[in-house]
């Protein structure tokens, strides 16, 4: 068995993170105690929200400590078990360290069924991004048939699921994304009604106006900044705005300044609500069940952008902020063992 | 009988309104038709939201047309009736013209009972401002016992009722207002726990921190701008922000620019919702009943700032933006007739 390899946060990024903010470290493979399992990492998730944890200001969740292993979504297989409920060969998901081998107890991981869907999807459509889309759109956005739903970051892991759920609910769905490839994908493959490439549009406000002739009823916001300013100018009375992310701002060095939005919310009796998927932890089972059903019925398609190799984790993470990926960005660390005893 | 006198919108204000934006006009007293009543104005309401209607940009309600009579809340008595349900001597409330005499049909006015409370209160605590406070706080803010509720514009017609309802619900109530007289009034007379004079406080953020040692759960916002920026920096997870008004911005000539607030809402899973009292029209009866009960029980006190004389209406309106008034600003236009046949 090889040694363990780990990725630590070496320094806090100022603005856009760089490779220098991270460090690789070699370590022995840990021993497990009673009630614990040893997990070999198969897939590792890189997500935009993790940028927030790299700063030491308040965010959804506490900051990552410096010089410690970064923690995120991991799918792995158990290679050694001293826990009653988990056996060698089981595939589990959990919030674990960016390393080749993790030790966990049974409360820290959840067993997943590899026969339902590819195990990587538990980091995407059937996991955190899927549930984020599901609860943010349905609980806060509450789209009704015939309403207009606008989604920023529409070709990202969350956005593409939001749009497909909105279509299931009978909405007119408009996506905003940053490349023609993304635009083509979400309209031609995923069934979005209209998509706008904000990078090549001269006038995003005008483009949105044309795409939303009846105004905007729901704005699912992943990006913030000027794109959001433009969407907010088109709100209908009683509009709902789930705030899922503000990726355009995560790497700003100065505070984000722009037109204050309260007047727009006020004159339209509009609702804006921030959320994090863990707000809905009690309903995860219901959400995951519904998502799996829609995937099986072909009503929701998913796309993963899988980078091979633990050593490419940092690049995969940095790529999130370059607008390069379509769909869920995942790092494949190892192949699942063939034996399943 | 004297002639009718009317106040017209002569020009649209740019920035702070001035007397020159208004014109007085004399006109004959109108004739009424079948189904109509002639109403003599007794009290007239001046309200901050009316500023929005004087501009021609989109607001809650359509703009006032130029060179036409301004429309607002009026309490008056019927001096002539050709309607079945209303008689001479009845006191009614409605959205009517700023003039000594209005013609209305029965759908446009609502009869009020002068024996329950002084008739002017139907423009204040038992009327639009009271209902605004009631629904904004209870439906959107949903304060729970022991939570912290912060109110800007706390000594205004709406703010002072919000604070008292929040106290009834068992909250820790912090008011922000612009004079020591206001501060003393809302703490000593109305029972707010803490009040901050934003005009004499060096550091509003620090003052709020001290006033809200457990953070902010509900922020009832009447003013917007930098005061709101400071409050939003103290939100707790799951905070609720009813947006009632943005009086600090109504007279700005340039767009209001400041730190974008989405990040604050996002990291705190906070909800912000604009509203206008008419969103709750179906529940007015319930709200008015509860407010009247609280007033009768002495749990809600009210304060009116009554200016005498129709000719002082413009001054009373302009005074709203100078921060001079405590409580509901009302113009008394005429005494009610003694005969009540």
From TrEMBL, chains A, B:
CDD domains, sorted: PGDH
Superkingdom of source: Bacteria
Domain annotation Enoyl reductase (ER): ranges: 17-331
GO molecular function: oxidoreductase activity, acting on the CH-CH group of donors, NAD or NADP as acceptor
Gene3D superfamilies: Medium-chain alcohol dehydrogenases, catalytic domain, NAD(P)-binding Rossmann-like Domain
InterPro entries in the record: ADH-like_C, ADH_N_2, ER, GroES-like_sf, MDR_fam, NAD(P)-bd_dom_sf
Keywords tagged on the record: Oxidoreductase
Protein name per its UniProtKB record: Alcohol dehydrogenase
